[in-house]
């Protein structure tokens, strides 16, 4: 291998033997040196900043990514499950309060029309028909049984505010989470048929518990017609003090008309009309007249002092959705002239 080395001898000059060709072209060598320099700079910079997000394995050159050290993924955790950020309670209350005002708008304008499917009506097909009729017929609200799945069905069919009815305050929570914007303690007809009646104290306690659970949700409470009229008025006043937004009246079940036709319709509506008249003059919150009403008597309820009407069996007992829509439209049209007249400044005499 003498040709590849320098030979130094005492007293002699240095003799340089011819070099063998370099195995890499000069440009490639320069590129390799530059790449090595850059890699060294990158490594030293990362090491000094302590921001490396990969850790070399001791047994191989493979790198394992550590999610909690990755500056590109600051919001991920080491587990694959993502945790949703809870909305602050103050924000939730503000949203519910805004919805509450929107739900009550038609009551304040004295033109609310709520179509009721029934507290114990869990028939999805019938409920869907009632909701569709309310939406297409010109109603302002729809009232269904307190069931989260029914609420989801209803809000998929209409943009109207959905109210849920129950006599169990705990049932309201999942329904509100599903999208219900109003809750109702009432629609007791199915209980009357089973021989169950509610006392004023029971209604008051249910109201307190509901308001405790849902302080920012619109709340309507039905005053039982089984109470005498003075007791209905007294209960309504107590409910107003507990923060109830709407008082609903009833009476259709206790009425047995002796006449047919229009006279019979008026007779049937008389108990709930009387309650609406009396209660609306004792409280400042809106009163909804419900039970036993029709297109004939709905305008009478508004004239008597009600801010809206609730209609159930006149719609939900019909056989098909077309007939339901026609009935809702008939009632909505009957209310329009009365609501327009009451909005005029010279209509104050109607409230005397």
TrEMBL record:
Main location: plastid
Keywords: Plastid
Keyword Cytoplasm: no
Keyword Cell inner membrane found: no
Gene Ontology CC terms: plastid
Pfam families linked to this entry: DUF561
Subcellular compartments: Plastid
Family assignment from sequence similarity: Belongs to the ycf23 family.
Protein name per Swiss-Prot or TrEMBL: Uncharacterized protein ycf23
Organism this protein belongs to: Cucumis sativus (Cucumber)
């Amino acid at each position: 291998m003498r040709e590849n080395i320098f030979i130094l001898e005492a007293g002699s000059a240095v003799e340089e033997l011819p070099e063998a060709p370099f195995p890499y072209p000069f440009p490639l060598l320069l590129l390799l040196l530059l790449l090595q320099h850059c890699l060294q700079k990158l490594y030293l910079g990362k090491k000094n900043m302590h921001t490396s997000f990969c850790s070399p394995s001791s047994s191989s050159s493979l790198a394992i990514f550590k999610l909690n050290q990755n500056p590109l993924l600051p919001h991920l955790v080491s587990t694959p499950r993502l945790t949703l950020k809870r909305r602050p309670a103050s924000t939730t209350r503000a949203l519910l309060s805004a919805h509450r005002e929107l739900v009550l708008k038609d009551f304040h304008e004295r033109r609310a029309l709520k179509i009721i499917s029934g507290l114990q009506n869990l028939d999805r097909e019938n409920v869907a028909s009632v909701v569709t009729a309310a939406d297409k017929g010109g109603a302002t609200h729809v009232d269904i049984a307190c069931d989260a799945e029914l609420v989801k069905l209803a809000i998929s069919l209409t943009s109207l505010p959905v109210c849920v009815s129950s006599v169990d305050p705990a049932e309201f929570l999942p329904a509100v989470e599903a999208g219900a914007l109003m809750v109702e303690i009432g629609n007791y007809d199915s209980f009357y048929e089973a021989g169950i009646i509610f006392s004023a104290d029971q209604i008051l306690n249910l109201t307190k518990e509901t308001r405790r659970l849902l302080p920012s949700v619109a709340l309507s409470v039905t005053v039982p017609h089984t109470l005498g009229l003075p007791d209905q008025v007294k209960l309504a006043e107590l409910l107003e003090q507990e923060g109830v937004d709407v008082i609903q009246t009833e009476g259709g079940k206790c009425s047995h008309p002796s006449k047919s036709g229009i006279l019979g319709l008026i007779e049937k509506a008389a108990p709930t009309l009387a309650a609406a008249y009396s209660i609306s003059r004792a409280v400042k919150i809106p009163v909804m007249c419900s039970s036993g009403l029709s297109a004939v008597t709905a305008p009478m309820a508004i004239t008597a002092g009600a801010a809206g009407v609730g209609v159930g069996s006149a719609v939900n007992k019909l056989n098909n959705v077309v007939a339901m829509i026609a009935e809702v439209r008939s009632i909505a049209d009957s209310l329009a002239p009365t609501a327009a007249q009451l909005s005029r400044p010279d209509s104050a005499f109607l409230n005397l």
